[in-house]
Amino acid sequence: MWRLARTLCEHTAKSIMLSRPPCRPTALMSTLLIHHPDYAWLQELGLSEENAGVYNGNWRGGGQVITSYCPANNEPIARIRQASMEDYEETIKEAKEAWKMWAEIPAPKRGDIVRKIGLALREKIRVLGKLVSLEMGKILVEGIGEVQEFVDICDYAAGLSRMIGGPVLPSERPGHALIEQWNPLGLVGIITAFNFPVAVFGWNNAIALITGNVCIWKGAPTTSLVTIAVTKIIAKVLEENDLPGAICSMTCGGADIGTAMAKDTRVNLLSFTGSTQVGKQVALMVQERFGRSLLELGGNNAIIAFEDADLSLVLPSALFAAVGTAGQRCTSVRRLFLHASIHEEVVRRLKGAYSQIRVGNPWDRNILYGPLHTKQAVSMFVRAVEEIKKQGGTVVYGGKVMDHPGNYVEPTIVTGLAHNAPIVHEETFAPILYIFKFKKEEDVFAWNNEVKQGLSSSIFTKDLGRIFRWIGPKGSDCGIVNVNIPTSGAEIGGAFGGEKHTGGGRESGSDAWKQYMRRSTCTINYSTDLPLAQGIKFE
């Protein structure tokens, strides 16, 4: 990530350059990309013209047939047969049955299976990363990096499988042991978003598996081919180890499947990644049945650069966090607060860096900025720019839709708005960066915290006291609080998630594994007496 950010800043091109896709004969324009020789590599992932969108040990799909499109040119890639409600019901039953076997396997043995999943993913890392680039739209190095995240969390989970457990606590009663026992929940539902179609599933799946759970996954409909390809890799590992495929089930589908998962009492934990608006609906449905939910929702993230900031760190950090994945990360920076003493220089240099970004087909190795994911995202970008101007903002760079096949918009820089302007407090999932000027530390810390979301935040400073104030109780209220690095690019070893309208969930590392288990406090009397706690006598 860091090398990529520096490349973005240091490239010597004079203006935004657009790399057009190679021309194809008109006769091919209406056909699926999977039939074109340039995309024959899709078959290496087991994909075909029409793909079964349900896996529960068997491949099936009796629901609606949808088509997946490439955001770089809006051409169809392949078709998917989604899950019907009958498919969903059958898959839930198969998964619950598979859990009976999986839960009996010792945790280190489960960890070894997860390790093998990581090895299988590593073998397909380049071709799977290429599919992420083709179907989601992020540049190739980011697509490969996302698969690497799944590989890394498999390695992490394999080690964790030998360490999970609770303490033995001192009992106040003689002849008694007080222990904390952790057990799996059962079935974990995982609903993931389009922007990270591999990694977020990996965070949940690897930890859920080693803690003794089975999974049912519903990926985003617009990245269904990635969902199917990843599931095929996992299914092969399970099959080779004589394990039920339903341990890692999959149901491609829309809101009907997601709603069923949220309302289903058989789904013991539902992990949902998506917008705050939809996440709120999911949370209410799960809470209505007193279920558990793990929410990873929106972010309205800020970078703050003080007068003593190292600008050689600030510029590439702000650039990558703002335009990486075309601004479609939940950790993308939306707000950049600059101390008054460095404001003009940073804005000038950032505009220069933006002009050097090479835009084009995301699977081209020389490209650093790809399209938005859908046509709807482009429309949202256009509406946001119009609203920015209505509220008094000035677009100092970008702000336009590019005249090019696909969903390309110019990376955009905005100045002149108040820190609390209504449009600033909305999360626009696009490469729009709002820049503000500040003078006082206490003011800018408050501005960082005034938005509804609380995912990621970062300051750039050399002041040690300020750093500890920033990470302390009166500093950032986010779940990710960084110093001298961007808001995006989290490592798998730490718990990932945010506060407030971001949902409060934690995935990946640290003690996030506890969200996938239930805790029992166990008191064991190994004596022949029956003393009561607190010295109570009942005679």
From TrEMBL:
<keyword id="KW-0007">Acetylation</keyword>
<keyword id="KW-0963">Cytoplasm</keyword>
<dbReference type="GO" id="GO:0004043">
    <property type="term" value="F:L-aminoadipate-semialdehyde dehydrogenase [NAD(P)+] activity"/>
</dbReference>
<keyword id="KW-0520">NAD</keyword>
<dbReference type="GO" id="GO:0005829">
    <property type="term" value="C:cytosol"/>
</dbReference>
<keyword id="KW-0560">Oxidoreductase</keyword>
<comment type="pathway">
    <text>Amine and polyamine biosynthesis; betaine biosynthesis via choline pathway; betaine from betaine aldehyde: step 1/1.</text>
</comment>
<dbReference type="InterPro" id="IPR029510">
    <property type="entry name" value="Ald_DH_CS_GLU"/>
</dbReference>
<dbReference type="GO" id="GO:0005634">
    <property type="term" value="C:nucleus"/>
</dbReference>
<dbReference type="GO" id="GO:0005739">
    <property type="term" value="C:mitochondrion"/>
</dbReference>
<dbReference type="InterPro" id="IPR016161">
    <property type="entry name" value="Ald_DH/histidinol_DH"/>
</dbReference>
<feature type="domain" description="Aldehyde dehydrogenase">
    <location>
        <begin position="64"/>
        <end position="520"/>
    </location>
</feature>
<feature type="active site">
    <location>
        <position position="296"/>
    </location>
</feature>
<dbReference type="InterPro" id="IPR044638">
    <property type="entry name" value="ALDH7A1-like"/>
</dbReference>
<dbReference type="InterPro" id="IPR016162">
    <property type="entry name" value="Ald_DH_N"/>
</dbReference>
<comment type="subunit">
    <text>Homotetramer.</text>
</comment>
<protein>
    <recommendedName>
        <fullName>Alpha-aminoadipic semialdehyde dehydrogenase</fullName>
        <ecNumber>1.2.1.3</ecNumber>
        <ecNumber>1.2.1.31</ecNumber>
        <ecNumber>1.2.1.8</ecNumber>
    </recommendedName>
</protein>
<keyword id="KW-0809">Transit peptide</keyword>
<dbReference type="InterPro" id="IPR015590">
    <property type="entry name" value="Aldehyde_DH_dom"/>
</dbReference>
<comment type="function">
    <text>Multifunctional enzyme mediating important protective effects. Metabolizes betaine aldehyde to betaine, an important cellular osmolyte and methyl donor. Protects cells from oxidative stress by metabolizing a number of lipid peroxidation-derived aldehydes. Involved in lysine catabolism.</text>
</comment>
<comment type="similarity">
    <text>Belongs to the aldehyde dehydrogenase family.</text>
</comment>
<dbReference type="Pfam" id="PF00171">
    <property type="entry name" value="Aldedh"/>
</dbReference>
<dbReference type="GO" id="GO:0008802">
    <property type="term" value="F:betaine-aldehyde dehydrogenase (NAD+) activity"/>
</dbReference>
<keyword id="KW-0496">Mitochondrion</keyword>
<dbReference type="InterPro" id="IPR016163">
    <property type="entry name" value="Ald_DH_C"/>
</dbReference>
<keyword id="KW-0539">Nucleus</keyword>
